[in-house]
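Subgroup meeting minutes
Present: P.N., E.W., G.H.
Scribe: E.W.

1. P.N. recapped why we're keeping a running log of single-chain structure predictions: easier to compare across weeks, and new members can see raw inputs and outputs side by side.
2. G.H. added today's entry (145 aa).
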Amino acid sequence: MSADTELRQGRTNVRGNVRRTPGPCARWADSDADFIREILDLVGDKWSVLIIGTLSDGPVRYSDLAYAIPGISQRMLTLTLKQLRRSGLVDRTAYAEVPPRVEYSLTALGTSLLSTVLELAAWSADRQAEIRRHQTTYDSAADPG
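Output recorded in log:
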């Protein structure tokens, strides 16, 4: 087999070649990769992290969630809650009252993710000054072009 043919085959089997390299991706089957990426996109999203953290103490009304999470728009709150509900991390309970009342709470699955989410948020807060320092250094050294 020529070197050119080997190179072409290596390019077409990128995922297979990555699997031979030690690391976290080597543990998962190719068929799981897209699903894992989808879930990481959901639970790693800034709004999801903040919503899950806010629900840590129990059920919260929609308006209280909106108030407790600075900067989140109603649209983003609604969309994120919908995705968290779809994945079974959050429950929505509507009460037949006047005016209507809706509360959101973590499911057992959402609660199982809570410690990871809170640790990630705490890690970010604890290292904020160091990370900002690195960003400033990088930005000032970066080529403007």
